[in-house]
From TrEMBL:
Record-stated family: Belongs to the tetraspanin (TM4SF) family.
InterPro entries: Tetraspanin/Peripherin, Tetraspanin_animals, Tetraspanin_EC2_sf
Name the record gives this protein: Tetraspanin
Membrane topology listed for this record: Multi-pass membrane protein
Top-level taxon of origin: Eukaryota
Disulfide cysteine pairs (residue numbers): C145-C177
Protein keywords: Disulfide bond, Membrane, Transmembrane, Transmembrane helix
Membrane-spanning ranges: 12-33, 53-74, 86-105, 209-234
Classification lineage: Eukaryota, Metazoa, Ecdysozoa, Arthropoda, Crustacea
Organism (species): Tigriopus californicus
GO cellular component, one term: plasma membrane
UniProt subcellular location: Membrane
Length: 244
């Protein structure tokens, strides 16, 4: 009995070190994805933008939970190990749910981005819509695109009254390069990006959502093993107390 308890105790302690690593992975993954999303803030809904934030929160919570696991394993304290098991089970369910939700969210990505882009087109360059204007400039410059579906999306906006598109659509960073482009269809491909941004941004966001889902489910499965070891150790400790 004593030998098996020692074996489970050291395995649980080892798993706690692994949990610290998973917590760090969650924080880093969430932080990186959030920094990517922040560039496209005005094109993303709250449900999409909050996913990486939740990863960071869960990573920090895991650091807190491992305290109970390590102390409980070292001191062979039944209450601390059971607390660790319950908290870890809670994290497991949240991570599993987040992973499944992230994959389900992929179907909403295109419609969400498309709706926000259409609103942004009409508000580009207007007073009080600095965030929208900056987001459009970043998206078009970084993803090498123009408009939502194509560059002609700018035709029916207040910005293009003189047949212009934003300079962020241009192949080269030259001030005023987008002026009058909509009236020169033959010259447009030589001066600006003509393909729209919707498909490209959808791909970027979908890949990151898949990463969130994959990391959440993968770590949840690993933590399930830790829950099993914690319960076994708690059961063994309880039996020893009852024998005494």
């Amino acid at each position: 009995m004593e030998g098996s308890m020692k074996c489970i105790k050291y395995l649980l302690f080892t798993f706690n070190l692994f949990f610290v690593l998973t917590g760090l992975i969650l924080i880093v993954t969430g932080g990186v994805i959030q920094s990517i999303y922040s560039q496209y803030l005005d094109f993303l809904g709250n449900s999409i933008f909050n996913a990486p934030i939740l990863l960071v929160v869960m990573g920090c919570f895991i650091f807190f939970v491992t305290f109970f696991g390590c102390c409980g394993a070292i001191k062979e304290n039944y209450c601390m190990i059971m607390t660790f098991s319950v908290l870890l089970a809670l994290i497991f369910m949240i991570e599993l749910g987040c992973g499944i939700a992230a994959y389900a969210m992929k179907s909403e990505v295109r419609s969400t981005i498309e709706t926000q882009m259409e609103k942004g087109l009409m508000n580009y360059g207007r007073k009080g819509y600095t965030g929208v204007t900056e987001t459009w400039n970043v998206v078009q410059h970084e993803l090498k695109c123009c408009g939502a579906q194509e560059y002609r999306d700018w035709e029916n906006t207040t910005f293009s009254q003189d047949k212009s598109v934003p300079d962020s659509c241009c192949l080269s960073d030259v001030e005023g390069c987008g002026n009058g482009i909509l009236g020169m269809p033959d010259q447009a491909p030589k001066i600006i990006y003509t393909k729209g941004c919707l498909n490209k941004l959808e791909e970027v966001v979908s890949v990151n959502i898949a990463t969130v889902g994959g990391v959440g489910i993968g770590i949840a499965m690993a933590q399930f093993v830790g829950i099993v070891f914690a319960c076994l150790l708690a059961k063994t400790i309880k039996k020893e107390y009852e024998m005494v």
